[in-house]
């Protein structure tokens, strides 16, 4: 049980794809997603403020899309976040989806409206 450990993940976007940060934890066989911050057309200098919407975002490590090392560096330096690139490999997205499907349940807090919409799109396919 990882109830005393928070996990965070960031993804970089700009126009129709959002820049976002998700905060979650695992308890037993369940994944609980507690907080989200989403921004469209978010400028680099505005990302730290976007991430600071999430309580204690600076306290826990953040794994981010490694395809933008300059963005990781900028947000780490300017925002003071413990941010590093998440490793990628062939089929890493498929592996991640399979990992999530292995949870007994995924519980998304109602305040995470953007993520709820994303899951609804995926689950309706």
In words, what does this structure look like?
30% of the residues lie in helices and 29% in strands. The chain is of the alpha/beta class and 125 residues long. The chain has a six-stranded mixed β-sheet with strand order 5-4-1-2-3-6. The termini are far apart. The relative contact order is 0.19.
What is the topology?
Elements: E1 7-11, E2 19-27, E3 30-39, H1 47-51, E4 62-65, H2 69-79, E5 83-86, H3 92-101, E6 105-108, H4 113-123
Parallel strand pairs: 1-4, 3-6, 4-5
Antiparallel strand pairs: 1-2, 2-3
Key words describing this protein structure:
125 residues
Entry summary:
It contains 4 helices and 6 strands. By secondary structure, it is of the alpha/beta class.
Shape: globular
Task: Summarize the helix and strand pattern as letters.
Answer: EEEHEHEHEH
Q: End-to-end span in angstroms?
A: 32 Å
Low-confidence stretches: none
Number of E strands: 6
Task: Assign a percent range to the helix content.
Answer: 25-40%
Task: Strand order, main sheet: write it out.
Answer: 5-4-1-2-3-6
């Amino acid at each position: 049980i990882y109830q005393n450990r928070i996990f965070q993940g960031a993804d970089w976007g700009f126009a129709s794809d959002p820049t976002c940060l998700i905060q979650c934890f695992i308890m037993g066989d369940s994944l609980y997603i507690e907080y989200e911050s989403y921004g469209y057309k978010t400028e680099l200098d505005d990302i730290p403020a976007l991430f600071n919407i999430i309580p204690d975002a600076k306290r826990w490590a953040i794994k981010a899309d490694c395809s933008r090392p300059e963005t990781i560096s900028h947000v780490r330096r300017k925002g003071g976040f413990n941010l590093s690139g998440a490793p990628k490999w062939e089929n890493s997205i498929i592996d991640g989806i399979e990992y999530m499907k292995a949870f007994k349940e995924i519980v998304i807090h109602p305040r995470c409206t953007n993520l709820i919409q994303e899951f609804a799109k995926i689950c309706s396919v």
